[in-house]
Amino acid sequence: MIGNSERKLALSNIAVAYVAFLIGTFCGLIQVFMRNDRLELPAWLDYYQVLTAHGVLLALIYTTFFIYGFLITGMSKSLGSFGPKVRLWSWVGFFITLIGTTWATVEIISGRASVLYTFYAPLKASGWFYVALALLIVGTWVMSFALIGHYVQWRRKNKGVLSPLFAYMTMATFALWIISCLGVVGAVLFQYIPWAFGFVDTINVELSRSLFWYFGHPLVYFWLLPAYMAWYLVIPKLVGTKVFSDSLARLSFLLFILFSIPVGFHHQLGEPGVTDFWKFLQVTLTFMVVIPTLMTAFSLFAVFETSGRQKGAKGLFGWVGKLPWKDIRFTSLFIAMLFFIPGGAGGIINASFQLNEFIHNTLWVVGHFHITVGAPVAMTFMGITFWLIPYLTGRTLTGTTKKLAFVQIASWSIGMLLMSTAQHVLGLLGAPRRTQYSHYNDNPTVLGWFDGFFSNTATIAIGGTILFFSAMLLIVIVLRLWFLEPRSAGQDMYAEFPLAESDTSATPKWLENWWIWIGIAIALIIIAYAIPITHLIQDAPPGSKGFINW
Amino acid sequence: MHLHKFEKIWLAFGILTLTVFLGIVGFTAFAQGQTPAGGQDTIDPEKVDVTAPFDDPGVHQIDDNTYEVVIKAMTYGYEPSEIKVPAGKEIIFTVTSKDVVHSFTIPNTKVNMMVVPGRISHKSYTFDKPGTYLTLCNEYCGTGHHFMYTEIEVFEE
């Protein structure tokens, strides 16, 4: 069990995460019925407000707070209790993030910021919305630097020793996060805030979009890397073996830092202002993440097979039956991984340069991120929740809650499968994303979006309803684990932090020389961005004044 | 650093397919001209109505086989509202925005480009079949976003 103060810190983060989850999934439920013309909102609320809230609360707030809850716990578990300074700054960071979050949510709900979470200049939200977002990010930086401080202290006390894998991966995640946030912080501080408060009249739109996507893509890896940490470190423990290869695990995280940032133009392939050369260069860099992804897939299946064979499995696939399917902590993560196979394949399609035009801004993309962040990442976080909350509250996961957890994971899978498949199919039929219901003058193209099984917005609504049911079930489980379950007797496996051993004897020391890797990351960023960004600034057209179209 | 033999094979196979894949994408893009929409021309977003070619929006024949369609996007529609082009001819769409970011998207075709204020987007496309083609905005532009569409009449010549 970790120290009391870290437990409170982690639980506070997780509490905020699940409040955001509750409101965010409810917004999702409203959307699936509105798109199908089955629901009308009261006059004071509109679809795009609900959409903005859904995106911000789930993709940004739920993920971020949950990630810090998980990482704080793991850092305390693997490096020891926090000192007073680390504790203080973690709390300071938490409250700054919380203030930013609450403030931004209030701005959205009160209708002053229906700009969606990708900002969309020259749509202009209230200046305070951007201030709130800046606070949110600065808060996460403060929390990150508190944990980095904890790591640095440990390294000083343990000279010449590789850090535990959990701590190493946490540091890689923060390196990625801090470097990538520079883009959005730059855009907010130097473009949006002066413009929204009226210090300057106009904004350079294409520059603001490019700075956003410099941040927007690594953001998805910021969600994914903590999920990968669970796949690399928790899964082997649950199946009763060790981390497959310590050095490969570390190398794959380094490659994610290098190849997830200089790639933002693949979100802007159909945009003017950036030449084909720079778009294609970033497409090439984007695809380099295939390498660490393949390494991760190999490690995972190696872990599954080794553990199965240790338990006496025979034949080519005999090990499948030896996996601990009755352990919800394992099963939830396994299903999460399965979703990532079509999720990754879809990602390859999206980033494929000219092929992107066929799916860009269609419902296909919505389907894509629901089977990447909405299933692999979210279901991994759910699987972590099932043991992390008991671990932190000292309670145990009993039979009833365990059954509820299986129902929750099963319903999330079915709901997501229905909803995301329909979204992919409708996207291929041209249905746009981020739109309220519209029949577009009953054009024959549109009629195809409302009949058929998967080519039907009704299927999205059914899937979405199942997902909402599952989300509410998860809230019930969280509350039970927090307040109602019996206190654990101390020997209970569900109240443990499952952390696999990782043999560092063959791991080269240069993998933990951060300056080299951060240096290479920055060099790649300069190569991919310096010239096109300079061009966007120097050869900019007259800027745009703000618009409030809501 | 130790690599398992199977992992070496797995990674070599992965990297090889990746190289072939990027080679094909790059070849179709740069040798066959299949590049996504874009454009380097700029314009003052406040003066779109008085700046060529947007002072005269609509369909213009360039030569026997090529037409340019000049379109202004705005909340929530496109100008001109009526567009008629022949099938089987190259159509170059030239689009800019008078206000916020929009898209110019014809579902089921490869015409799907972002329209950014201050910049001019181009895309060339040849319609094979005549018909009424739905054209819509798929980039959020305000509360009326889902009402932003037009239809393009493609006729047999």
TrEMBL record, chain A:
<feature type="transmembrane region" description="Helical">
    <location>
        <begin position="247"/>
        <end position="265"/>
    </location>
</feature>
<keyword id="KW-0812">Transmembrane</keyword>
<keyword id="KW-0408">Iron</keyword>
<dbReference type="GO" id="GO:0016020">
    <property type="term" value="C:membrane"/>
</dbReference>
<feature type="transmembrane region" description="Helical">
    <location>
        <begin position="165"/>
        <end position="193"/>
    </location>
</feature>
<dbReference type="Pfam" id="PF00115">
    <property type="entry name" value="COX1"/>
</dbReference>
<keyword id="KW-0679">Respiratory chain</keyword>
<feature type="transmembrane region" description="Helical">
    <location>
        <begin position="129"/>
        <end position="153"/>
    </location>
</feature>
<feature type="transmembrane region" description="Helical">
    <location>
        <begin position="514"/>
        <end position="537"/>
    </location>
</feature>
<feature type="domain" description="Cytochrome oxidase subunit I profile">
    <location>
        <begin position="1"/>
        <end position="550"/>
    </location>
</feature>
<dbReference type="InterPro" id="IPR023615">
    <property type="entry name" value="Cyt_c_Oxase_su1_BS"/>
</dbReference>
<feature type="transmembrane region" description="Helical">
    <location>
        <begin position="460"/>
        <end position="483"/>
    </location>
</feature>
<feature type="transmembrane region" description="Helical">
    <location>
        <begin position="404"/>
        <end position="426"/>
    </location>
</feature>
<keyword id="KW-0479">Metal-binding</keyword>
<feature type="transmembrane region" description="Helical">
    <location>
        <begin position="330"/>
        <end position="349"/>
    </location>
</feature>
<keyword id="KW-0249">Electron transport</keyword>
<keyword id="KW-0472">Membrane</keyword>
<feature type="transmembrane region" description="Helical">
    <location>
        <begin position="12"/>
        <end position="34"/>
    </location>
</feature>
<dbReference type="GO" id="GO:0004129">
    <property type="term" value="F:cytochrome-c oxidase activity"/>
</dbReference>
<dbReference type="GO" id="GO:0020037">
    <property type="term" value="F:heme binding"/>
</dbReference>
<feature type="transmembrane region" description="Helical">
    <location>
        <begin position="88"/>
        <end position="109"/>
    </location>
</feature>
<dbReference type="InterPro" id="IPR023616">
    <property type="entry name" value="Cyt_c_oxase-like_su1_dom"/>
</dbReference>
Automatic annotation (TrEMBL), chain B:
<comment type="function">
    <text>Subunits I and II form the functional core of the enzyme complex. Electrons originating in cytochrome c are transferred via heme a and Cu(A) to the binuclear center formed by heme a3 and Cu(B).</text>
</comment>
<protein>
    <recommendedName>
        <fullName>Cytochrome aa3 subunit 2</fullName>
    </recommendedName>
</protein>
<dbReference type="InterPro" id="IPR001505">
    <property type="entry name" value="Copper_CuA"/>
</dbReference>
<dbReference type="GO" id="GO:0030313">
    <property type="term" value="C:cell envelope"/>
</dbReference>
<dbReference type="GO" id="GO:0004129">
    <property type="term" value="F:cytochrome-c oxidase activity"/>
</dbReference>
<dbReference type="InterPro" id="IPR034214">
    <property type="entry name" value="Ba3_CcO_II_C"/>
</dbReference>
<dbReference type="GO" id="GO:0016020">
    <property type="term" value="C:membrane"/>
</dbReference>
<dbReference type="GO" id="GO:0005507">
    <property type="term" value="F:copper ion binding"/>
</dbReference>
<dbReference type="InterPro" id="IPR008972">
    <property type="entry name" value="Cupredoxin"/>
</dbReference>
<keyword id="KW-0186">Copper</keyword>
<keyword id="KW-0479">Metal-binding</keyword>
<dbReference type="Pfam" id="PF00116">
    <property type="entry name" value="COX2"/>
</dbReference>
<feature type="domain" description="Cytochrome oxidase subunit II copper A binding">
    <location>
        <begin position="62"/>
        <end position="157"/>
    </location>
</feature>
<dbReference type="InterPro" id="IPR051403">
    <property type="entry name" value="NosZ/Cyto_c_oxidase_sub2"/>
</dbReference>
<dbReference type="InterPro" id="IPR002429">
    <property type="entry name" value="CcO_II-like_C"/>
</dbReference>
